[in-house]
Write a structure and sequence with these properties.
2 domains, about 55% helix, 4 helices, rod-shaped, about 15% strand, two-stranded antiparallel ribbon, 4-stranded antiparallel beta sheet
Length: about 160
């Protein structure tokens, strides 16, 4: 019979399983699967001397074992594909969060988030107070436009990275 040590068919003697230190008794069954019953034999390979146990069981269990192995392989492959797709989705979300954090870090965003308006700088306040309101407004507009353009560029750059 097949010797698991020689990995080929050899002559194997049948011996008492108890001679390997196993509990005596040759009829066994699983208490959790009472339909699985087998007859245990001790075997000693006459070529290499390796001792091992065999279980004589209903052959249908071999077919069931193969079916279960195949099903498990398929489940495992599907689970791995699912995990890969989930982490890709998580990656896209985390890049989106990073983009939003960049946007939040911009001064123009912080200012509008706090007050709803962009405040005048000291320099702009001086201009406005000294009567040069037009210069103050122009400066403010330029700053806002630059800030928004910067925000758009940064978000676009982040979106491009995540493609
Ligand atoms: Zn052997």
């Amino acid at each position: 019979m097949w010797c698991p040590h020689c990995r080929e068919i050899t002559v194997c003697a049948a011996v008492d399983p108890a001679s390997f230190g196993n509990p005596s008794g040759q009829r066994w069954q699983r208490t959790d699967h009472t339909d699985i019953q087998w007859f245990r034999r001790g075997r000693v390979c006459q070529t290499c001397g390796h001792g091992f146990l065999t279980a004589e069981a209903n052959e249908q269990f071999i077919g069931e074992l193969v079916e279960l192995r195949d099903a498990l392989r398929e489940i495992k492959a599907n689970a791995e594909a699912y995990v890969a797709e989930s982490s890709a989705a998580a990656g896209a979300l985390s890049r989106l969060t990073a983009s939003l954090n960049v946007l939040r870090a911009l001064q123009v965003y912080q200012q509008t988030a706090h007050s709803g308006v962009i405040e005048l700088t000291d320099e702009e306040s001086q201009l406005a107070l000294s009567g040069n309101k037009l210069a103050a407004v122009q400066s403010l507009r330029k700053r806002t436009a630059l800030g928004l353009a910067e925000a758009v560029d940064l978000v676009n750059a982040h979106l491009k990275q995540s493609e």
